[in-house]
Specification:
It is a single chain. By secondary structure, the protein is an all-alpha fold. Among the domains are: 1-83 and 452-472; 154-311, no CATH class; 478-574, Alpha Horseshoe (Serine Threonine Protein Phosphatase 5, Tetratricopeptide repeat). The protein contains 23 helices and two strands. Strand 1 (186-187) and strand 2 (190-191) form a beta hairpin. Helix 4 runs antiparallel to helix 6 (125-141), helix 13 (317-334) packs across helix 15 (369-398) and helix 21 crosses helix 23 (560-574). It is globular.
């Protein structure tokens, strides 16, 4: 018997099956809406009242989305629905990837960091599990038709993020100054847009993921209205991507768009070769003239200068990456099989660095996704990652003739290409896993409808308890944001000389997020009464400061400044003479 949807014939007839089918149907529809809401909310989530304005709010949304999807799935089963598991081609590969991360966590150099990740990064085991669950739970409720609605929700979120990037560049660009060189925030006197991602490279990775999908919407559009809308989205994403000045994202997006456009362009060239050649010349001639004449706005000149560096990958930040990659090989060789633990790269890289490649900044990523996996999860993790990629390629190969399958594959290719000079990070990674769920829904056969069951008392009670536990877990999932908010308040209080208030806020932050080393280090600074030069002040409490700094080091803070201040606090506590 087919599941009866709310308002269907059986419900209208008042059949006995109607009560058992109504609630599962409603919960199923809510489950279908949740990934759409997440697709728009994840890239836009920010929390201005906290210290980590951009990344931690997205992590909280990711965790809440996973818990809500799981709770709705359990509730639908408790109400009489069938707990049907839709197999995906990636199930085994994903299980191996999570399993390798779990093994490396057990053997990690610092288990706290391996589980939760480092501050403003959070790529520990807990986040890896969230990615897997986001994909798998979304794949259970998204079918081939719903997949494109989810894709368009992702495009909507990306469109809004890109518009904000353009506004940010227009307002903030004037403050950069013509002499600014290449940095995480500037290039050749132009601001690198970061929008709601907080980082230009993360924004570039996200927009590179979406641009092939926007190109497909433009190719597949029917009617003038749809074409104008698709062109608007594609142009906005493209401009936002240019303003990131992220070379890897440009390369990834170009490859993804080329995969989407190859088929239609080849078909057009066969039918009307003269028209196709004329369009190509019309599109490329203005760009070529502007490049030769150095014409156009300042941002366009900066984009051309950035594009020219693609011919010399060892220039600028590319040279730094080459050094990091070289030193990372020794790090991998030291623990080749299980790695050092998820997100622990920054804890161990200083032991293997042959020079200070980024003075004043801690290198906490390998800036190459496969190398990062090798360092943190070992060769077992690399094998699982490669198996996942091969499985994705195989899944696409079997369904490549389905409508839009090439576009979804091209988007994932663009993302993976970009990651090879970057790293997996919540702002772009969470939307990418949602996209993969949509891709799998398009590639696999349409599943048969699930029959309704009976909401037996024991089943209803067990499901209600499980769903309530998942809902209750949403509060701890949001606690890190509350802790981060108190941390920011502590920083403001400390800067204004209010030590009591700062210590109170730091104590609250540490209670809510006891594994955050940054909070313990800041507590040490307040207790040592350090000035702007890092020297202790007259109100120093060396014993308490020593305990706080030791907590910070134990939790994974490897900053040289924390080590120096720990030594100062210990010297003051013991009365040893200064060196």
């Amino acid at each position: 018997m087919e599941r009866v949807r709310d308002g269907g014939p059986a419900a209208a007839a008042g059949s006995p099956a109607a009560p058992a089918a109504v609630w599962p149907g409603r919960l199923d529809r809510l489950s279908v809406w949740l990934p759409r809401a997440g697709a728009v909310t994840l890239p836009l989530a920010v929390w201005p009242l906290g210290y980590d304005v951009f990344v931690l709010p997205k992590l909280a949304v990711l965790r809440l989305l996973v818990l809500a999807l799981a709770a709705l799935r359990v509730a639908a089963w408790a109400a009489g629905g069938r707990l049907v598991r839709r197999r995906t081609p990636l199930d085994l590969a994903l299980a191996l990837l999570v399993g390798s991360a779990a093994v490396s966590t057990l053997l990690a150099v610092n288990v706290d960091v391996a589980v939760l990740g480092t501050y403003e990064r959070y790529e520990g085991l807990a986040t890896i599990v969230c990615y897997a669950l986001l994909f798998w739970l979304s794949a259970q409720v998204v079918d081939g038709r719903e997949a494109w609605t989810l894709v368009r929700a992702l495009l909507l979120g990306g469109y809004l993020v890109a518009l904000l990037a353009v506004v940010q560049w227009a307002i903030g660009g004037a403050a950069v100054g013509a002499g600014a060189g290449e940095s995480a925030r500037t290039f050749a006197g132009s601001l690198r847009a970061a929008s709601t991602m907080g980082n230009a490279d993360a924004l570039g990775t996200f927009l590179a993921l979406l641009l092939p999908l926007a190109a497909w919407e433009l190719v597949a559009a029917r009617g003038l209205g749809q074409r104008l809308l698709a062109a608007n989205v594609a142009a906005s994403l493209g401009v936002g991507l240019l303003l990131t000045y992220s070379r890897a994202a440009w390369a990834g997006a170009a490859l993804g768009v080329a995969l989407v456009a190859a088929g239609p362009l080849a078909a057009a060239a066969r039918r009307r070769p003269a028209v196709a050649a004329g369009v190509a010349v019309a599109l490329s001639a203005p760009l070529a003239w502007a490049a030769a004449a150095h014409a156009g706005p300042a941002w366009f000149g900066a984009a051309l200068a950035r594009a020219a560096t693609l011919a010399d990958p060892a220039s600028g930040s590319g040279a730094t990456r080459l050094h990091i990659w070289h030193d990372s090989l020794a790090l991998v060789a030291a623990r080749p099989w299980a790695g050092w633990g998820p997100d622990t790269f920054g804890l161990v890289f200083p032991r293997f660095a042959t020079a200070d490649w980024t003075p004043g900044f801690t290198i906490d990523k390998a800036h190459n996704d496969l190398l990062q996996v090798a360092a943190t999860q070992g060769l077992a993790g690399v094998a699982a990652q490669l198996f996942l990629l091969v499985t994705i390629v195989a899944g696409f190969g079997r369904a490549r003739r389905r409508q839009g399958a090439v576009a979804l594959f091209a988007a994932w290719v663009a993302y993976e290409v970009t990651l090879q000079t970057a790293f997996s990070w919540v702002p772009a990674a969470a939307p990418a896993w949602l996209l993969l769920a949509a891709a799998v829904a398009v590639w696999r056969p349409v599943p048969a409808p699930a029959p309704a069951g009976a909401a037996r008392p024991a089943r209803l009670a067990a499901g209600a308890v499980a769903a309530a536990a998942l809902v209750a877990a949403m509060l701890p999932a949001a606690l890190p944001v509350a802790a981060d908010t108190r941390f920011r308040s502590a920083l403001v209080a400390h800067a204004s000389g209010q030590r009591i208030a700062a210590l109170r806020d730091l104590a609250a932050a540490r209670r809510m997020a006891p594994a955050e080393s940054v909070y313990a280090a800041e507590a040490g600074d307040v207790l040592l009464d350090v000035d702007q030069a890092g020297d202790p002040g007259p109100g120093a409490d060396p014993a308490a400061a020593t305990a706080a700094y030791r907590d910070a080091v134990r939790l994974g803070d490897v900053r040289p400044s924390v080590q120096r201040r720990l030594q100062t606090a210990e010297r003051l506590r013991t009365g040893a003479p200064s060196r």
